């Protein structure tokens, strides 16, 4: 791009132009210089605009991180209270889930529901209905 191979009429041996008023090589060269100067100005203004946008974006992110940090500091005591309440209620919840598992052992229909919503396999009761299903003859419904 820096090697512009511009031929001026003085350097090339060619016949004289029909209109000797202005040599075309100099006018093209001056036009190119003007275009380059204009492009440099546009490039410089784009760099300045990009710098301004980058500074605004960085300051926005900085302010958002400070606001988030302040919000987090306000929420830390509440989160600590929730964690403490969870630790206090954990034995009661475990005991209740144990009671549900015991109930599911005696009631196989509830075992499937417990396994679905709690995610704990109940063991033998879940296998008992599956084993009883293939033993049914034809289409007879069991009496309850």
Q: What is shown here, in short?
A:
By secondary structure, the protein is an all-alpha fold. The chain has helices at residues 24-106, 108-117, 124-132.
3D structure, described in words:
With 144 residues, this protein is mostly helical. The protein has one domain (25-129). It is 71% helix and 0% strand. The protein is built from three helices and no strands. It is elongated. The chain starts with 23 loop residues before the first helix and ends in a 12-residue tail after the last helix. The model is unreliable at 124-133 (pLDDT under 50).
Features:
144 residues; 3 helices; mainly alpha
Principal-axis shape: elongated
Mean pLDDT: 78
| Strand and helix order | HHH
Tell me the total number of β-strands.
Answer: 0
Tell me the number of helical segments per DSSP (H or I, 4 or more residues long): 3
Rg result: 43 Å
- Summarize the main sheet: none
Domain module count: 1
Poorly predicted regions are: 124-133
Question: What helical percentage do the residues reach?
Answer: over 70%
| Secondary structure category | mainly alpha
Strand residues, percent: under 5%
Give the N-to-C terminal Cα separation.
Answer: 94 Å
């Amino acid at each position: 791009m820096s090697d512009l191979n511009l031929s001026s009429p003085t350097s090339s041996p060619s016949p004289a132009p029909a209109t000797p008023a202005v040599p075309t090589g100099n006018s093209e060269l001056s036009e190119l210089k003007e275009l380059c100067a204009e492009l440099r100005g546009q490039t410089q203004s784009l760099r300045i605009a990009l710098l301004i946008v980058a500074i605004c974006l960085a300051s926005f992110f900085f302010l958002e991180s400070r606001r988030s940090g302040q919000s987090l500091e306000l929420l830390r005591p509440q989160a600590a209270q929730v964690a403490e309440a969870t630790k206090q209620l954990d034995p009661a919840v475990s005991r209740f889930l144990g009671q549900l598992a015991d109930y599911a052992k005696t009631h196989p229909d509830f075992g499937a529901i417990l396994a679905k919503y709690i995610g704990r396999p109940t063991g033998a009761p879940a296998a008992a209905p599956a084993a009883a299903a293939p033993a049914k003859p034809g289409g007879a419904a069991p009496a309850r």
